[in-house]
Amino acid sequence: PQTVYVRVEDIVTNCFSITTLELQVEQAPTANTPMPLEYCDPDSDGTGVFTLTDADADIVGGQLGLTVSYHETMADADNNVNALSSPYNNIVAFNQTIYARVESVTITTDCATIVELELIVYDTPAIEEDITPLEACDDNDDGFAQFDLTQADADVLNGLDAVQYTVRYYETEANAEAPSNAIVNPTAYTNTMANMQTLWVRVDDTATGCFK
Known about the structure:
Elements: E1 2-9, E2 16-23, E3 37-41, E4 49-50, H1 56-60, E5 66-71, H2 74-79, E6 88-89, E7 95-104, E8 112-123, E9 146-147, H3 153-157, E10 165-170, H4 173-177, E11 189-190, E12 200-205
Protein backbone atom coordinates (compact mmCIF):
# COMPACT_ATOMS: atom_id res chain seq x y z
CA PRO A 1 0.00 0.00 0.00
CA GLN A 2 0.93 3.66 -0.43
CA THR A 3 -0.42 6.81 1.20
CA VAL A 4 -0.82 9.99 -0.83
CA TYR A 5 -2.00 13.38 0.40
CA VAL A 6 -4.98 15.30 -0.84
CA ARG A 7 -5.13 19.11 -0.55
CA VAL A 8 -8.48 20.81 -0.98
CA GLU A 9 -8.26 24.61 -1.33
CA ASP A 10 -10.96 27.27 -1.43
CA ILE A 11 -10.08 29.32 -4.50
CA VAL A 12 -11.63 32.47 -2.98
CA THR A 13 -10.14 32.45 0.52
CA ASN A 14 -7.13 30.24 -0.13
CA CYS A 15 -8.00 28.29 2.99
CA PHE A 16 -7.27 24.60 2.63
CA SER A 17 -7.48 21.26 4.30
CA ILE A 18 -5.31 18.21 3.84
CA THR A 19 -6.33 14.58 4.16
CA THR A 20 -4.83 11.25 3.20
CA LEU A 21 -5.77 8.67 0.59
CA GLU A 22 -4.51 5.12 0.75
CA LEU A 23 -3.69 3.29 -2.46
CA GLN A 24 -3.75 -0.47 -2.17
CA VAL A 25 -2.85 -2.97 -4.88
CA GLU A 26 -4.69 -6.29 -4.58
CA GLN A 27 -3.17 -9.45 -6.01
CA ALA A 28 -5.50 -11.08 -8.52
CA PRO A 29 -6.29 -14.72 -7.65
CA THR A 30 -3.95 -17.39 -8.96
CA ALA A 31 -5.79 -19.70 -11.35
CA ASN A 32 -4.73 -22.74 -13.37
CA THR A 33 -5.67 -23.41 -16.98
CA PRO A 34 -7.83 -26.55 -16.59
CA MET A 35 -7.76 -29.76 -18.53
CA PRO A 36 -10.45 -29.84 -21.26
CA LEU A 37 -13.90 -31.17 -20.42
CA GLU A 38 -14.77 -34.04 -22.75
CA TYR A 39 -18.11 -35.53 -23.81
CA CYS A 40 -18.87 -38.72 -25.72
CA ASP A 41 -21.71 -37.93 -28.10
CA PRO A 42 -24.15 -40.81 -28.67
CA ASP A 43 -25.77 -39.22 -31.75
CA SER A 44 -22.49 -37.82 -33.15
CA ASP A 45 -23.89 -34.36 -33.91
CA GLY A 46 -21.02 -32.50 -32.25
CA THR A 47 -22.99 -31.19 -29.30
CA GLY A 48 -22.99 -32.41 -25.72
CA VAL A 49 -23.83 -31.60 -22.14
CA PHE A 50 -21.03 -30.36 -19.90
CA THR A 51 -21.00 -29.97 -16.12
CA LEU A 52 -18.82 -26.87 -16.05
CA THR A 53 -18.29 -27.06 -12.30
CA ASP A 54 -16.27 -30.24 -12.88
CA ALA A 55 -13.42 -27.89 -13.83
CA ASP A 56 -13.58 -25.86 -10.59
CA ALA A 57 -11.10 -27.96 -8.63
CA ASP A 58 -8.65 -27.99 -11.52
CA ILE A 59 -8.84 -24.20 -11.83
CA VAL A 60 -8.51 -23.21 -8.16
CA GLY A 61 -6.00 -25.94 -7.33
CA GLY A 62 -7.12 -26.38 -3.73
CA GLN A 63 -7.14 -22.68 -2.86
CA LEU A 64 -9.91 -21.54 -0.53
CA GLY A 65 -12.04 -18.43 -0.79
CA LEU A 66 -12.32 -18.34 -4.59
CA THR A 67 -15.42 -18.30 -6.77
CA VAL A 68 -15.52 -19.43 -10.41
CA SER A 69 -18.00 -18.37 -13.08
CA TYR A 70 -18.07 -19.39 -16.74
CA HIS A 71 -18.73 -17.21 -19.80
CA GLU A 72 -19.01 -17.76 -23.55
CA THR A 73 -16.79 -14.81 -24.49
CA MET A 74 -13.75 -13.09 -23.05
CA ALA A 75 -15.68 -9.80 -23.00
CA ASP A 76 -18.45 -11.36 -20.88
CA ALA A 77 -15.88 -12.79 -18.48
CA ASP A 78 -14.00 -9.50 -18.30
CA ASN A 79 -17.21 -7.56 -17.58
CA ASN A 80 -18.62 -10.28 -15.33
CA VAL A 81 -21.89 -10.59 -17.25
CA ASN A 82 -23.92 -13.45 -18.76
CA ALA A 83 -22.53 -16.20 -16.55
CA LEU A 84 -23.33 -19.66 -17.89
CA SER A 85 -25.43 -22.14 -15.96
CA SER A 86 -24.30 -25.72 -15.50
CA PRO A 87 -24.94 -28.19 -17.11
CA TYR A 88 -24.17 -26.37 -20.36
CA ASN A 89 -24.76 -27.37 -23.99
CA ASN A 90 -21.95 -26.27 -26.28
CA ILE A 91 -22.95 -23.95 -29.14
CA VAL A 92 -19.89 -24.62 -31.33
CA ALA A 93 -19.81 -28.18 -32.65
CA PHE A 94 -17.09 -30.56 -31.46
CA ASN A 95 -14.71 -27.98 -29.99
CA GLN A 96 -15.50 -24.76 -28.12
CA THR A 97 -13.49 -22.48 -25.85
CA ILE A 98 -15.24 -20.73 -22.97
CA TYR A 99 -13.78 -18.52 -20.24
CA ALA A 100 -13.61 -19.07 -16.49
CA ARG A 101 -13.53 -15.97 -14.27
CA VAL A 102 -11.91 -16.51 -10.87
CA GLU A 103 -12.50 -14.02 -8.02
CA SER A 104 -11.63 -13.87 -4.33
CA VAL A 105 -14.57 -13.66 -1.94
CA THR A 106 -12.52 -11.48 0.43
CA ILE A 107 -11.48 -8.76 -2.06
CA THR A 108 -14.15 -6.12 -2.62
CA THR A 109 -12.31 -4.61 -5.60
CA ASP A 110 -13.28 -5.99 -9.00
CA CYS A 111 -10.14 -8.13 -9.25
CA ALA A 112 -10.31 -11.33 -11.28
CA THR A 113 -8.20 -13.79 -13.22
CA ILE A 114 -9.58 -15.29 -16.43
CA VAL A 115 -8.50 -18.62 -17.92
CA GLU A 116 -9.70 -20.59 -20.94
CA LEU A 117 -11.65 -23.85 -20.69
CA GLU A 118 -11.87 -26.10 -23.73
CA LEU A 119 -14.99 -28.19 -24.35
CA ILE A 120 -14.44 -31.21 -26.61
CA VAL A 121 -17.13 -33.47 -28.07
CA TYR A 122 -16.13 -36.89 -29.38
CA ASP A 123 -18.21 -39.19 -31.54
CA THR A 124 -19.03 -42.60 -30.11
CA PRO A 125 -17.88 -45.56 -32.24
CA ALA A 126 -20.10 -46.02 -35.29
CA ILE A 127 -20.55 -49.76 -34.85
CA GLU A 128 -22.98 -52.19 -36.44
CA GLU A 129 -25.83 -52.80 -34.00
CA ASP A 130 -27.69 -55.45 -36.02
CA ILE A 131 -25.10 -58.19 -35.66
CA THR A 132 -25.42 -61.48 -37.50
CA PRO A 133 -26.06 -64.24 -34.91
CA LEU A 134 -23.37 -66.82 -34.24
CA GLU A 135 -24.58 -70.39 -34.72
CA ALA A 136 -23.15 -73.74 -33.74
CA CYS A 137 -24.17 -77.37 -34.28
CA ASP A 138 -25.13 -79.19 -31.08
CA ASP A 139 -23.57 -82.67 -31.29
CA ASN A 140 -25.21 -84.11 -28.17
CA ASP A 141 -28.50 -82.20 -28.29
CA ASP A 142 -28.07 -80.59 -24.85
CA GLY A 143 -28.47 -76.98 -26.01
CA PHE A 144 -24.84 -76.01 -25.35
CA ALA A 145 -21.90 -75.49 -27.69
CA GLN A 146 -18.60 -73.66 -27.89
CA PHE A 147 -18.41 -70.35 -29.79
CA ASP A 148 -15.57 -68.19 -31.06
CA LEU A 149 -17.10 -64.79 -30.27
CA THR A 150 -14.31 -62.96 -32.05
CA GLN A 151 -15.83 -64.14 -35.33
CA ALA A 152 -18.30 -61.27 -34.79
CA ASP A 153 -15.56 -58.62 -34.39
CA ALA A 154 -15.48 -57.56 -38.04
CA ASP A 155 -19.28 -57.46 -38.20
CA VAL A 156 -19.45 -55.27 -35.09
CA LEU A 157 -16.66 -52.91 -36.16
CA ASN A 158 -18.36 -52.34 -39.50
CA GLY A 159 -15.17 -51.12 -41.16
CA LEU A 160 -13.64 -49.34 -38.16
CA ASP A 161 -9.89 -49.73 -37.66
CA ALA A 162 -9.34 -52.70 -35.33
CA VAL A 163 -6.11 -51.08 -34.13
CA GLN A 164 -7.96 -48.06 -32.70
CA TYR A 165 -10.95 -49.93 -31.25
CA THR A 166 -11.17 -52.75 -28.72
CA VAL A 167 -14.02 -55.26 -28.77
CA ARG A 168 -15.07 -57.10 -25.61
CA TYR A 169 -17.98 -59.40 -24.84
CA TYR A 170 -20.15 -59.49 -21.70
CA GLU A 171 -22.96 -61.63 -20.38
CA THR A 172 -24.99 -58.66 -19.08
CA GLU A 173 -25.59 -55.09 -20.20
CA ALA A 174 -24.67 -53.79 -16.73
CA ASN A 175 -21.25 -55.43 -16.97
CA ALA A 176 -20.73 -53.95 -20.43
CA GLU A 177 -21.62 -50.47 -19.14
CA ALA A 178 -19.36 -50.73 -16.07
CA PRO A 179 -17.22 -52.28 -17.65
CA SER A 180 -16.50 -55.36 -15.56
CA ASN A 181 -16.38 -59.14 -15.88
CA ALA A 182 -15.65 -59.27 -19.59
CA ILE A 183 -15.74 -62.79 -21.00
CA VAL A 184 -12.20 -64.01 -20.36
CA ASN A 185 -11.78 -66.39 -23.31
CA PRO A 186 -13.99 -65.12 -26.13
CA THR A 187 -12.45 -67.51 -28.64
CA ALA A 188 -13.80 -70.51 -26.71
CA TYR A 189 -17.02 -69.47 -25.00
CA THR A 190 -19.71 -71.98 -24.07
CA ASN A 191 -23.20 -70.52 -23.77
CA THR A 192 -24.71 -70.62 -20.27
CA MET A 193 -28.34 -70.55 -21.41
CA ALA A 194 -29.55 -73.51 -23.43
CA ASN A 195 -30.22 -73.14 -27.15
CA MET A 196 -30.14 -69.34 -27.39
CA GLN A 197 -28.35 -66.63 -25.44
CA THR A 198 -27.85 -62.89 -25.94
CA LEU A 199 -24.49 -61.34 -25.15
CA TRP A 200 -23.46 -57.68 -25.03
CA VAL A 201 -20.61 -56.28 -27.09
CA ARG A 202 -18.70 -53.19 -25.99
CA VAL A 203 -16.48 -51.29 -28.44
CA ASP A 204 -14.04 -48.74 -26.96
CA ASP A 205 -12.24 -46.02 -28.90
CA THR A 206 -8.72 -46.19 -27.47
CA ALA A 207 -7.97 -42.61 -28.63
CA THR A 208 -10.91 -40.86 -26.94
CA GLY A 209 -12.19 -43.32 -24.32
CA CYS A 210 -15.69 -43.20 -25.84
CA PHE A 211 -17.58 -46.47 -26.20
CA LYS A 212 -20.76 -47.99 -27.50
